[in-house]
Amino acid sequence: MAYSEQVIDHYENPRNVGKMNDQDDNIGTGMVGAPACGDVMRLQIKVSDEGVIEDAKFKTYGCGSAIASSSLVTEWVKGMTLDQAQELKNTKIAEELALPPVKIHCSVLAEDAIKAAVADYKEKQAKK
Amino acid sequence: MMDITQNYFEFLALPVTYQLDLQALSERSRALQKKLHPDRFSHLSDRERRLSVQYTAYLNEAVATLKHPLSRAQYLLKLEGIDTFSESQVQLDPMFLMQQMELRESLEDIADATDPDAQLEQLRQKVEQEMKSLREQFDMNYQQSTPSAHEAAAVCVRKMQFIDKLGREMEALEDKLFDE
């Protein structure tokens, strides 16, 4: 199956690969996985006191589409508020990357990951 | 008479169990293959020949599915109405995912290590141990035959899918190291 140019670009030059300290209060970590393909994805956000995402990092073990989806999300969410990030839809990711129907689940995984990261951050704040 | 509406176990005249006798599986499979050999059907009608092709395809599918511990577990659950073959939207234990992430990271580090073979072997033992324990948990839950136990068995299967993928990645690295 041929990947789109956008997927290849993110796959070959993934943005924001890395890890932030998940013990820090201002970091939210989302861990998700897809059993059917064995993909694992970690997406982290660093949130300012004003509730704006200042930085985002990801690490994905999976196919090109999964890597591209998470890479794109980290680019997009920087500068977003938590509410905006939570509203991010997989259909937008799939559209931007021109994902074929069999790879739509990769964009769903990335949407789940950002939602999980926001939820993790909010949970940490509530505990403070 | 063969019947492809039977499930794979019935088709092969084997008991429906996770602890499958692999020796019996290969014996039954060979016996059926002999029976289905196209030469035996050459003098028969088109319809009967078509049937033999259909039976052979079903037999191959059955053997491939039952032979491997992971797909056998998935098939047993499917018979119970739980389809784990293609699901994508499931809740997974974050701790488990974290651990999977770490295992993948250590595999990635092995590629650049000075003694990759020894480290790969160490990781393999760890992964095999994990897989063995998941298989045991699966079987224990599967045998309990209650809906909640079957759901717990499905959780084991989902975990096994990740470990299985890791195993394939390890094999790929091993091939790569061997080629270098």
Q: Sheet with the most strands of chain A?
A: 3 strands, antiparallel
CATH class of the largest domain in chain B: Mainly Alpha
Task: Name the CATH architecture of chain A.
Answer: Alpha-Beta Complex
Give the radius of gyration of chain A. Answer: 14 Å
Integer count of domains of chain A: 1
Keywords:
heterodimer, A: 128 residues, Sufe protein. Chain: A, three-stranded antiparallel sheet, 46% helix, B: 180 residues, mainly alpha, Helix Hairpins, Monooxygenase, 2 domains, 7 helices, 0% strand, globular
Question: Explain this structure to me?
Answer:
The complex is a heterodimer of chains A (128) and B (180). With 128 residues, chain A is of the alpha+beta class. Chain A contains five helices and three strands. Chain A has a single domain (10-123), classed as Sufe protein. Chain: A (Alpha-Beta Complex), CATH 3.90.1010.10. Chain A has a three-stranded antiparallel beta sheet. In chain A, helix 4 (90-97) crosses helix 5. Chain B has helices at 8-11, 22-35, 46-67, 69-79, 94-111, 116-144, 147-179. The radius of gyration of chain B is 20 Å and the shape is globular. In chain B, 73% of the residues lie in helices and 0% in strands. Chain B is mainly alpha-helical and 180 residues long. Chain B starts with 7 loop residues before the first helix and ends with a helix. In chain B, helix 2 (22-35) runs antiparallel to helix 3 (46-67), helix 5 (94-111) packs parallel to helix 7 (147-179) and helix 6 (116-144) runs antiparallel to helix 7 (147-179). Classes of the chains: A alpha+beta (128), B mainly alpha (180). Chains A and B meet through strand 1, strand 2 and helix 5 of A and helix 5 and helix 7 of B.
